[in-house]
Amino acid sequence: MSSKKAMRQAQKQAYAKHRSNITNSQYERKKNFLFKNKVNKQNKN
C-alpha cells in the first residue's frame, strides 16, 4: 500500500473514531440528565 493511501485510510479511521466519540458522549450525557431528572422527581413525591 502506498504511503499516500495509508495516510488517507488512517485519517478516515481517526475521523470515524472522533465522530463515534462525539455521538457516544452526547448519548451518555442525555441518559445521565434524564436519570437525574427521574430521581429528582421521585424525591419530590
Kindly describe this structure.
With 45 residues, the chain is mostly helical. The chain has one helix and no strands. The chain is rod-shaped, with a radius of gyration of 20 Å. It starts with a helix and ends with a helix. The mean pLDDT is 81.
Strand content: under 5%
Quick one: how many beta strands? 0
Helix content: over 70%
Terminal-residue CA separation: 64 Å
Radius of gyration: 20 Å
Instruction: Spell the H/E element sequence.
Output: H
Query: Which structural class should the secondary elements be placed in?
Result: mainly alpha
Shape: rod-shaped
Number of helices: 1
Arithmetic mean of pLDDT: 81
Largest sheet: none
Unreliable residue runs = none
SSE inventory with pairings:
Elements: H1 3-44
Summarize, please:
The protein has about 45 residues and is mainly α. The protein is about 95% helix and about 0% strand.
